[in-house]
Structure formats: C-alpha cells, structure tokens
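Sequence, structure tokens quoted for completeness.
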Amino acid sequence: MLVSAGFRNLVVCHLDHGLRGRASTMDAKWVSRLAKELGLGCEIGKSDIVARMAERKESMETAARHARHEFFATCAKKYRCNRVLLAHHADDQAETVLWNLMRGSHGMKGMRAMQRLVTKSGRALQIERPLLGVRHAELVDWLESNGHRWREDASNAEAVAIRNRLRNEVFPLLDDVSGRDAALAFARGASDAAESDELEAWALQQANVLDPQGRLHLPVLRRLPVALQRLVIRDFLKQGRIASVDRGVIDRSLLLLDLSQPATVNLPGRARLRRQGGRLWIDP
C-alpha cells in the first residue's frame, strides 16, 4: 500500500520470533522476496522468544514485543531513521482495548496512531500506525482486488494466545449477542478515549509530584485526589519502563502511601517500588 501511494525510500524490517519452526522461516523468506520485487531494502532478524521468556520471566506477547522493539532500534540506528510504520489495524485495536479492560488497565485505552517510544537500549523511535482505522476484511479486499499475494500466520487460528481467543471466540459471540459490529465499537471507543490524553497530560503536569532526582514526593502525592494518585503512579511506572502495568500493580503501589504498610512493592520484571524518606522510586 505504501509503494502504491508513492513511497520509495522504505526499509522492510521483519523479525522471525522462532515460534513456529519452518513456517516462521518461510514467512521471513517470503517477506525478503517481496521486498526485492518492490525494490525495497530489507532487514531480516531472528530472536529466540522462548529463551527470552524463561530468562526474563516475560509472557510470550511481552517478550515478542520487546524483541521487536529492540530489532527496530537496531535497524533505526543502521539506517539513521527513527520512524517506524506498523501495520496494526482496527481489529487489532479492538482486541487491545478489550484485553486492557479485562486486565484492569486505565479506561478504553488502545494503541496510538502516533507514539514516541524509548527502547531499553535508550533508542527513541517514532511509531506510526496508519491502518488503525481500517478493518482486516478491508485489507484483504484491497489485496484481492489488486491481485496481490499474502501470507497468513497460521497460528492466528489456534486457541492458544489470549488475542487469538478474543479474535476467534469472544468477538464473534459479542457480535451475535449485540447484533452489531463489536470490534468496530471497541475501536471507536479507543479513538474517543484518545481525546482525553491531553487532559491527563495536563493533570499530570499540574500535579508536580517529582523531586529534582525524579522520585515521587509522598507528601505531595498524598494531597492529590485518589483518581489523580492512580494516574500519577501509572505514569511513573510506565516512564520507568515497567511492563504490564495493570490495576493490580497500581493498587499495590498505592499501599506505599500508608506508612503502616511494607515499604517495598514487587513490580513486573523483577523490579521493585520502594519508599524511604518520604520518596518513592523504582529499584531495578
């Protein structure tokens, strides 16, 4: 689609997660051939996601996402280009919103059309998702109408990953129960929720809870409304690159405001949130 729209200065970046054996290898080869046919540069990488999961105690989805981001950062450095275009579409967005709601994340949050992301290596990437408003079926129709070939990830049909079950079981049931397109409703909900981001950013700025060392100042934090306390904690953990910040993590972190409670809270990824001297900070 980018080439059809006139883009030429592109580099295709594909990471083989090593999860599907020969099928993964064939996917990578197919991408490489397609890039060559289109006259585009191509970078193919490979990562042992299973080993990463065991080493870093990450879920499969989290391990794969972090590996992709690190791969993109490597490619960005090589080509001196920090803009990364991803192909997430409206169905992906709907799944993200529903799963975030189910695990207690903050509101109808989904993926952003534009996002600045800093990888663990410190590389800043400008992430863009131009297809967030387009349904999967529309993309297939476009491919078919233009005579293009494509490959489907066969594991998408397997009831193993959470996203697969949401896609193949939950959303069809919601469509049947509601008599409408549930995925589209969730995708639109994410779009509406995105409009509150500016208000949240303003509220965080007004809260002014960080000390000169970047730690949370407990006396100031305690004076804030509980809803804003939750928002501050959530933002602080995310800025500290803590993955999988859900409602349970935030609730446990808020206990540190009570001096009668233990002064340490375990965070995802073996990190800890500590309280000492009227301050909170993340101990990796």
In short: The chain has three domains: 1-81, 87-108+131-194, 197-283. The chain has eleven helices and nine strands.
